[in-house]
Write a structure and sequence with these properties.
Number of strands: 5
Strand content: 5-15%
Oligomer: single chain
Number of domains: 2
Largest sheet: 3 strands, parallel
Radius of gyration: 17 Å
Structural class: mainly alpha
CATH superfamily of the largest domain: HAD superfamily/HAD-like
CATH architecture of the largest domain: 3-Layer(aba) Sandwich
Distance between the termini: 34 Å
Amino acid sequence: MFLESYGERFELQRTLEKRSLEHTLEKFGSSADADTLSNMMFEHWIKPPIFEESKAFFETSPLPVYIVSNIDTSDILKAIEYLGLKPSGVFTSEDARSYKPRCELFELALKGTGLNPDEVIHIGDSVSSDIKGAAAVNIRALWLNRFGKEVPNGIDSISMLTEAFDRLKDSTF
């Protein structure tokens, strides 16, 4: 659903989530209330848990850290405030009117930071959205593979954000 949501046809993540949930509930004949369940999801989006090392990553990174997210702008800004993070900037699908893995969000972030693809490393937890999307615009990427899934060939992975610091020191990355 989100892959077709771009440009003039762009819809917010909240809208897409609720429509998808309504479809799923109908398909399985569930009597659950889509509004109630969606509101629970939205609360999670604005008050998410965080891995402690993620906070350390933001606090100790020697380089600027930007957030590039498919979550709606107001939701990600609320989550950032809730978690006390201080990124150098935030770029969302809502800003780009397009979702990762499409190129528009990555291109918007490059333009907004004034950086070239070879000056950026994108770290993300989705191979399909983050890693392949970044690769499509020639940005190096690290897959944040927290749960030890099998790493596909040709993909660089880390299990914690702070491991990225060591990878940056590695001249082969």
